Structures are given as C-alpha cells and as structure tokens.
Amino acid sequence: MNDVGLGLGISLRRAVIAAVLATILLMPTASRSQSAKNFVLVIHGGAGVIPKEDLTPEKEKAARATLDAALLAGHSVLARGGKSSDAVIAAIKILEDSPLFNAGKGSVLTADGTVGMDASIMDGATHKAGACADVKRVKNPIELARLVMDRTPHVLLAGEGAERLAKEHDLQFMPPEYFITEQRRLQLQRIQRLEKEKTHKAGEKKVQFNNLENIGTVGAVALDKHGNLAAGTSTGGMVNKRFGRVGDSPIIGAGTYADNLTCAVSGTGHGEFFIRGVVCYDIAAKMKYQGVTLANAADEVVMRKLKEAGGRGGVIAVDAQGNVAMPFNSEGMYRGVIRADGKTWTAIRRD
Ligand code: ASP
C-alpha cells in the first residue's frame, strides 16, 4: 500500500472510531450501563384491603389472567424495540377495559353514582407528561393522558375540556352505563349505608367516606431496550368521592413519575396522602440526592413515611438498570412483572 492509501486507511479507521464514540456518548446513560436485554414491565392493579369473600378463587383466577394479558401486551411492545411509554399504555388499556379493576370500565362510583376517571403518563427520557382528571365518557383515559402530553402545551386537562380534546382526536367514547358495573353499584350502596350508620352514631354532621374498600387502580412502569423509562396510572379514584374530587393518579410527582436518571414509579392507595407526600417524586428524589438504591428509597417512602403519615397504599417502580421494587403497606396489592424472557409473574397478597 502506498503512503496515500495508508493515510486514507488510518483516517477511515479514525472516522469509524470517532463515530462509534459519538454514538456511545450520545446514548442515554442507562443504555450504556445496561444491555438491551434488560427490558422490563411492572404493573399494578391497586392496593388496599382484599376481603376474602370478595376474592373468590374464580375472581382471583380472572384477575390474574387479566394481569397476565396486560403484561404480555406491554411485553410485545418492548420486545420489538418499542418505547416504554407505548408499553405502559398498552398494558394499562387492557386493565381499563376489564370490569375487574378500578379504571375505565369497572371504575368505582362517586357519591352521586357516576364515574369520574383520572389518568397520567410520564416519559423519563424527555420529562414530558400528560394527564386528565374527572373524565366521564372516554373509554381509555390513559390514551387521553397521552394526547395531552403529545398534542398540547399542557400537562393536565380536566372535565369537559379534556373530553373536548379527546373528541378532536377521535378517541373512543362510551355511554355512562358502559363504565358502571353491578358490583360497583352494590359497593356504593354498602358504603353509603355504613357512612349513614356512623354519622348517626357519632351524632355529627357527616362522617368521612370509607376509603378502606378501595382497590383496583391500575398502573405500569417500564424500561425499554433503549434504556428509557416511563410510568402511567389510571383510576376511577376513591369510592363514594365527593363532586369534583381529584386524586393523586393524574398528579405528576404524586401518583406517577419517571426520570431516566433515577426511576419510574406508579402509586396506588389513599390519594390525598400521596399528594401531600409527593410520594412518587419523593422516591426519585431520594435516589437522586441521597444516592440510595431504588429498593431502599421505595421502602423508606412507602413503608415508613407514608405509613407514619397514615396513608395506606403501595407503588411499583423500576430503575434504569431494570431493578424492580413493589412495596405496599396495605393488606395486598395486585401486581405483576415481565422481563425479556416473556414469563409472567403475578401476586396479590403478601406472598
Ligand atoms: N390513588 C387513587 C386515588 O386516590 C385510588 C387508589 O389507588 O386506590 O384516586
């Protein structure tokens, strides 16, 4: 090879090395530190009290089958290299469509016997987020949350305005009867009866609504092949809630949070406590400012801080390395995990 050929060979090699280095440096930190095989999806179907008589073996089987279906829907997105936010939405839509969970069809009822649904989504790579609150006829509120994130300069739209956006983008609407199940009607009657009895006994104006019966909010967090995190949550809120009440689920930082440098978190439980404790962000902040692991941060926030404040509930969380945490301080939490091997894992109680 002559000198010119040799020179060209060297500069070509240099160019290739420079291109490879540039690609590596431009990748998110997470992509560099973990292999693309590490992708994972974690879901929850709500935390709370699970009365034995309410969870018959048949119901448990049906609930687990739905969790499995949600995990597999999200997994198929991640396995083909799709985005974590798309996997989160795919999983949540399955749970919203099931009458067994408190989101979409099967949402708990307000004190007026109607539904008012909240949902949110956050992208850990861009920190973009979208949410909707108190929507009544949109079949999949999580889709509406994505619209708010992708198609508006806002983060949270509520009520009629949110539904107007859904209409403009042809989201599917359903009549009120679609969302209301017989089981939710009976639940509301039972709780309102209890509330009356308590109020009567206490001789006070009004006793607070019973929040222990609440379970079934849904959420998902994911790490995709590109090292990006996302989190989403969807709910009918708290049973027997007062007009206009909005919980933590559509509040970024309280019920949902995602940041590639720390973790993605979705919460479930008594929303007022999650809002006051900014629970999901608190977990990310502990990792960021104190350098603690995901497991320690999630445990400290859910099992100590939230519990001491009197809030019951739990979270699902994943970090940029694919570590998963699922602490809950309530009796149970419907939950499931799927990794690259495609095997589903689900649990309900502390087992
Ligand atoms: N966090 C929800 C809310 O307060 C309810 C739940 O997760 O069970 O609206």
What do you see in this structure?
Helices cover 42% and strands 20% of the residues. The protein is an alpha+beta fold and 351 residues long. The chain has two domains: 3-32; 38-180 and 208-347, (Glycosyl)asparaginase (Glutamine Phosphoribosylpyrophosphate, subunit 1, domain 1, 4-Layer Sandwich). An eight-stranded mixed β-sheet has the order 4-3-2-6-5-1-11-12. Strands 7-8-9-10 form a four-stranded antiparallel β-sheet. It is globular, with a radius of gyration of 22 Å. It binds aspartic acid. Aspartic acid (ASP) binds at residues 46, 214, 217, 235, 237-238, 247-249, 255, 268-269, 271. Residues 46, 214, 217, 235, 237-238, 247-249, 255, 268-269, 271 line the site of aspartic acid.
Q: What percent strand?
A: 15-25%
Which structural class do you get from the secondary structure elements?
Answer: alpha+beta
* Individual helix count: 11
Q: N-to-C terminal Cα separation, in Å?
A: 69 Å
Q: What CATH architecture label of the largest domain applies? A: 4-Layer Sandwich
Q: Quick one: biggest sheet?
A: 8 strands, mixed
Strand order in space, largest sheet: 4-3-2-6-5-1-11-12
Q: Compute the number of structural domains.
A: 2
Rounded Rg: 22 Å
What integer is the average pLDDT? 90
Task: Put the structure in a nutshell.
With 351 residues, the protein is an alpha+beta fold. It has helices spanning 3-26, 29-33, 57-79, 84-97, 141-151, 159-168, 176-179, 182-202, 271-277, 279-290, 294-309, and strands at 40-48, 117-123, 129-135, 156-158, 218-223, 229-235, 256-258, 263-269, 313-319, 324-325, 332-339, 344-347.
